[in-house]
Design brief:
- The protein is α+β, with helices and mostly antiparallel strands.
- It is built from 1 helix and 5 strands; from the N terminus they run βββββα.
- The strands form 2 sheets. Strands 1-3-2 form a 3-stranded antiparallel sheet. A two-stranded antiparallel sheet has the order 4-5.
């Protein structure tokens, strides 16, 4: 939710392209099509629901694509309801609120 006194803060949930050594209930597979960026071109990402952070928006840098005309394009990534549900369930499991998936 939006809080009046914390308008410049956001919650970040970590993603990884590496499989977890031990798969836990707070891990989930998220398939992003197209991939996040050319640098991270694997469409399969692991949600790390035990790694959540609250950070200032000013400390974040959006990924961008460099267009042929030299301008930057900042594609917006919006997860669908099923993907957001997966992320939420992983976070809840990481907090110990949901113990089993």
């Amino acid at each position: 939710p939006k809080f009046r006194c914390r308008s410049m803060l956001t919650t970040v949930v970590c993603l990884s392209t590496a499989d977890p050594v031990v798969k836990m209930p707070y891990h989930g597979i998220l398939v992003l099509d197209p991939p996040i960026s050319p640098k991270f071109n694997n469409p399969t990402m692991w949600v790390k629901g035990d790694m959540i952070y609250t950070v200032s928006i000013s400390r974040l840098t959006r990924s961008f694509e460099l267009l042929s005309n030299g301008k930057r394009h900042y594609p917006a990534r919006v997860l669908n309801d099923e993907q957001m549900s997966l992320v939420l369930n992983c976070v809840l499991a990481g907090l110990g609120i949901i113990l089993d998936k």
